[in-house]
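Colleagues,

For the teaching module next term, I've prepared a clean inverse folding example: a structure given as tokens, and then the sequence designed for it. I'd like students to try predicting residues themselves before seeing the answer, so please don't circulate the second half yet.
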């Protein structure tokens, strides 16, 4: 299949008209959002959802998020929309928050991976909103990566994974946030965060007065079954062995240098993921700067690009600093820990 690649400048009416025609025919269009690039198809067509699973090589029990451009669409897709959910919609849409509702019959089981709930989000990216509005379609979209690879944060990443597999790619440049939306389940008695993201538990609690984290998030070591099916897959893992090193900065730098020196002496390729602050302190041949710690959105927006770069470099041993401190620390560490298969060295504990 030939994939059409076009700049997603919202002034280019002909580009959006073509993308809309493709979606209406049941085809697939990748598009930028403020979190990561999405791989979109008509949410109300089972055949489009099947195509998405096939293009990604994704297990079909892993449901898709339905993207809308008008809060009215929620009532077409979902039943029993609670008042609290309306508060969230008002406060955080358009934006990086996905809400889980009970689904109406109109949403095919294929779109929801067989669940009787549906995930809905209104993205804030102008190109995403225009695509949804102009096509008049609710767009089911997971991240536009091959299953198991980091989510795409540039059109280049989408092209790497999807060229020849889908009808069209809209190039909107690098995304702003860089990690997937926060998912909150509003079908539970207590609103439950299934996946952390830019919108923090604190922001939701401030609005609703009540929120909890899915127990599988808090205790990954207990191997509980997460309610967001996608969270159970080992996403994002680079091919090399990634380890997070945490503790006091000087000790972290010392330990990472000791480890990379030893691996490089044996002829292995290493890489280090660090904050700009420590950029020049590492010995490894490949020091990947994740941005300044004082501005953690630069870290979140760089993370998946750097994980992909580790593969391009052929890094066999990768060490990353911890990025827990900022506003988005919890969400960033959730992704980084998954990428590392929860392999962590704590230099403070090691000392004892
Ligand atoms: P992606 O955008 O690629 O991260 O994929 C969407 C993710 O949303 C899936 O992996 C699921 O974890 C989550 N999701 C979608 N629909 C539901 C649902 N009805 N209930 C719980 N989680 C969902
Ligand atoms: Mg994904």
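(Answer key — instructors only)
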């Amino acid at each position: 299949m030939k994939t059409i690649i076009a700049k997603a400048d919202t002034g280019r009416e002909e580009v959006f008209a073509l993308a809309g025609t493709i979606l209406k025919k049941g085809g697939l269009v990748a598009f930028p959002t403020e979190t990561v690039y999405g791989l979109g198809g008509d949410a109300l067509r089972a055949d489009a959802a099947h195509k998405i699973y096939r293009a990604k090589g994704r297990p079909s029990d892993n449901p898709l998020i339905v993207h809308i451009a008008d809060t009215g669409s929620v009532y077409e897709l979902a039943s029993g929309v609670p008042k609290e959910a309306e508060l969230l919609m008002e406060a955080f849409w358009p934006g990086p928050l996905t809400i889980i509702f009970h689904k109406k019959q109109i949403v095919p089981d294929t779109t929801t991976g067989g669940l009787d709930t549906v995930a809905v989000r209104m993205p804030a990216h102008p190109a995403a909103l225009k695509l949804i509005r102009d096509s008049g379609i609710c767009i089911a979209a997971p991240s536009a990566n091959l299953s198991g690879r980091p989510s795409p944060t540039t059109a280049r990443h989408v092209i790497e994974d999807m060229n020849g597999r889908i009808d069209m790619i809209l190039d909107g440049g690098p995304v702003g946030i860089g990690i997937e939306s926060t998912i909150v389940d509003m079908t539970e008695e207590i609103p439950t965060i299934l996946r952390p993201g830019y919108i923090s538990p604190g922001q939701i609690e401030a609005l609703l007065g009540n929120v909890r984290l899915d127990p599988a998030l808090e205790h990954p070591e207990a191997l509980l079954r997460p309610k967001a099916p996608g969270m159970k897959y080992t996403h994002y893992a680079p091919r090399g062995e990634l380890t997070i090193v945490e503790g006091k900065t000087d000790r972290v730098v010392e330990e990472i240098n000791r480890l990379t020196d030893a691996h490089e002496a044996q002829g292995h390729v290493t890489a280090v993921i660090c904050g700009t602050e420590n950029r020049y302190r590492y010995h490894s041949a490949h020091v990947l700067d994740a941005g300044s710690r004082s501005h953690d959105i630069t870290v979140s927006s760089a993370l998946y690009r750097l994980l992909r770069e580790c593969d391009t470099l052929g890094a066999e041993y990768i060490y990353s600093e911890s990025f827990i401190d900022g506003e988005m620390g919890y969400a960033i560490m959730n992704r980084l820990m998954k990428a590392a298969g929860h392999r962590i060295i704590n230099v403070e504990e090691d000392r004892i």
